[in-house]
Amino acid sequence: METTCFDPLNAACPTRQILSRIADKWSMLVLLALEPDTLRFSELRRHVEGVTQKMLTQTLRGLERDGLVTRTAYPTVPVTVRYTLTPLGHSLSSAVATIRAWAVENTDGIRDAREQFDTQPRSSTPPTPTATTRPAPGVAKPDSETEPMNSDPD
Fold first, then answer.
1. Which of 68, 73, 79, 132 has its CA 20 to 30 A from that of 107?
2. Which residues are within 8 A (CB) of 154 and not within 5 positions of it... i.e. 6 or more apart?
3. 50-59 core/surface letters (b: 16 or more CB in 10 A; e: else)
4. pTM for this one?
């Protein structure tokens, strides 16, 4: 049996698509909203403030496709649709709850870091890399860095 090595830093790794789905802002918020209970679309939309109908629809379709959410339609007029987490979705929601707890615990520190960053003076040009480079053969270094030049580069 062949084992697959998953490396999400590799662009071709299938875990990248999964991480993209679960790290999406709306996916995380929908998972949090569905953790305690099954909800209708309109209830979800009220729970997840700021999400548009289009974005919620796209998010729910993606979560359903990935097996994290089940969509159940009831034959009423108008049709009633309920969403619930699958066992796979529940297993992910515990990780999402951990990330949420981390965010709550570190909100003040992040806010302070942002304020400090935002008050630092910035130049209008991007920073220049400060990596040490060897001069091209035959080019002299500044006086402070002079050392015997070897005519045979490494």
1. 68
2. none
3. ebeeebbeeb
4. 0.70
